[in-house]
From TrEMBL:
Enzyme class per UniProt: transferase
GO-annotated biological processes: D-gluconate metabolic process
The keyword Transferase belongs to this UniProt entry's keyword annotation: yes
Lineage: Bacteria, Pseudomonadati, Verrucomicrobiota, Opitutia, Opitutales
Name this protein carries in UniProt: Gluconokinase
Gene3D superfamilies listed in its UniProt record: P-loop containing nucleotide triphosphate hydrolases
Length: 312
């Protein structure tokens, strides 16, 4: 299989569970027409079916809930409410069972056949999870994916004045994580246009977004937990930045136009003047599957909300 942007590893944890987040990715990608045809026949069965059975939920109902508003953690909370919460011990046993499928069991012949037909002979593949990772261009052995401690990048998005940098720095400091402000990654030509109250075009943003993506990839490769402040106004921009939803978590800082304008008018020393707010709000495509926070709350309260939501 080719690499599928927006599709995380089987090993990736959502809450306490492997595979669950990947199942949500497939549902969302299919609804957007971005899930390759080879994945279509397994939707709702196989690992999806096993996971739904473990949680005591119906796949069709899960699909409807996933495509409604809310992030991964919201959907998982719904699943536990719908089917009954599972204990830490139950989740640990379940994860170990799922991660070892294909290793010395009735699925081993199928796994060996898939390894051969995919040209992956010689790779350190012992389980179905390993196979899917290698098949999609990941290396679970190098990443030690089974240790379930993947790095995180918390991407705070929103228009100017939403508090991305303020909340981001405060959040990073409280966690002891690195902080990156995407505004610092703009090329000089972009800063000149913004300073002159000239909205950026997609062509202007392309090299900037590529630079932001490089910083995200570097943080993940170095296993360096990071908070990133980036406007990421369009869905297409976020598709470029969030390649692995298991590692990159999207947090949308949302505010009323009146509040945002008031904040910008009181801000000094930033290269983007208040007059650009209108164009940013026109460009903004609000995400449906992000943690959404109202910036009317104080930065300290927003940091507490993020940490409580993700359990960090």
């Amino acid at each position: 299989m080719p690499h599928v942007p927006g599709l995380r590893s089987e090993y990736s944890l959502t809450g306490r569970l492997v595979h669950f987040g990947r199942m949500l990715d497939k549902i969302r990608l299919q609804s957007e027409g971005r899930l390759p045809a080879d994945y279509q026949s397994n939707l709702g069965i196989g690992f999806d079916g096993r996971t739904c059975s473990f949680l005591g939920i119906d796949y069709a109902t899960l699909k409807t809930r996933t495509l409604a508003e809310g992030c991964d953690e919201d959907v998982l909370h719904w699943a536990h409410a719908e089917g009954g919460s599972r204990s830490d011990e139950q989740c640990t046993i379940w994860n170990r069972f799922m991660m070892k499928l294909g290793w010395r069991d009735d699925r081993t012949p199928v796994l060996l056949e898939r390894i051969a037909s995919s040209g992956l002979i010689g790779k350190q593949i012992e389980t179905m999870f390993d196979f899917n990772d290698f098949d999609e261009g990941r290396d679970p052995v190098t990443a030690r994916s089974w240790e379930l401690n993947e790095p995180r990048v918390l991407l705070l998005m929103g228009v100017s004045g939403s508090g991305k940098s303020t909340v981001g720095r405060l959040l990073a400091d409280s966690l002891g994580w690195a902080f990156i402000d995407a505004d610092d990654l703009h090329p000089p030509a972009n800063i000149a246009k913004l300073s002159a109250t000239i909205p950026l075009t997609d062509a202007d943003r392309a090299p900037w977004l590529a630079n932001v993506r490089r910083h995200i990839d570097a943080s993940i490769a170095a296993r360096k937990n990071t908070v990133l402040a980036c406007s990421a106004l369009k869905a297409t921009y976020r598709e470029l930045l969030v390649d692995d939803p298991g590692c990159v978590k999207l947090i949308y800082l949302k505010g009323s136009p009146e509040l945002l304008a008031a904040r910008l008018s009181a801000r000094a020393g930033h290269f983007a003047p208040p007059a650009l707010l209108t164009s940013q709000l026109e460009t903004l495509q609000a995400p449906r599957h992000a943690l959404t926070l109202d910036v009317y709350a104080s930065p300290e309260a927003l940091v507490s909300s993020v940490r409580r939501h993700y359990g960090i």
